[in-house]
Amino acid sequence: MSLISSSRWLVGVSAMLALPAAMANERVQVVTSFSILADMVENVGGEHVDVSSLVGPNGDAHVYSPSPGDARALAGADLVVFNGLLFEGWMERLIDSSDYRGALVTATDGIAPRAFAAHDEHGHGDHDDHEAHDEHDHDAHAHEAHHDKHGDDAHHDEHAEDDHSEHAHGDDDPHAWQDLQQARVYVTNIRDGLIEADGANAQSYQANAERYLAELDSVDAEIRELLSEIPASASVITGHDSFGYFSSAYGVNFLSPVGLSTEADPSGASMAALIDVIEQENVQALFHENMTNQAIITQLAEETGLPIAGTLYADALASEGDANTYLGMMRHNAQVLHDALAAPGHNDPGHDDDDHDHDHDHDDHGHDH
Question: What's the distance, CA 66 to chain centroid?
């Protein structure tokens, strides 16, 4: 081999050895608004994506304030993914300020959102008229039960007007990922966004999405079976009103001391009213959330004697442990609820008929998509 040929061969080998690094540098740069979306993107994107999240694990997207570094991160991204439905009230302003011009995914596109009943300020029905509610509609009743009790509290209304000007949710509940069947829409939107940003790897994104969608369906079935053992009469209280889709899908009745956003603190009057609701609604357990003010739930536990049965993950993944992925989070929440509500002693003999109906409701609900 001549010196020239040998040199060309060495150059060629060097180029081949450098190729994996070059390919790694060409991975799609994806920025998501919060950690749950980041995990979904990683599952669909696989080896072809680098994903960063503006709001990380255990972070609160409701009150997040973007930094100049966030605008720079968006400017350098190939794809931006956010929830929509005003969940991130700051996101559109951040996109505008960053001059981002790449592919954009609104993960909730195509979802028919749940109406948040509490935004109908003057249209609440009487909470005591429990029989008027459809027995399947646990989530709507939970919203009305809380907000009817303090709807006339002027201090609360003033507080809400002041604090929600920057992060108001509007009339729709944005927490659609809490229903795994709704999460299918998230996954297909992410898949399509990745294909738009990187058509060369379209087949990989399609295959990863199909695998991930099958996992969503499997976990959905697990959760339905697990939670069918919870009596229909049971209610729980969490830090903020983020489990409406979960309630509608899986039949667990949730109440909360504040609304959809974590920004508002309940007034003394609304806390007192909630204690009354706890007795009326057969509330059997309180739960912390990983990214909300735990003092409120702790105060309720002290005043009512109810146990704090664990931590639920609503708007953010855990930084470690079994809730550090989206599907792990959903499994964790279902198991914690099951352990608190289906344990011996929670089956009130006075609600045998309700329990029977509840099991039937879950069978029906599993096909209601």
Answer: 20
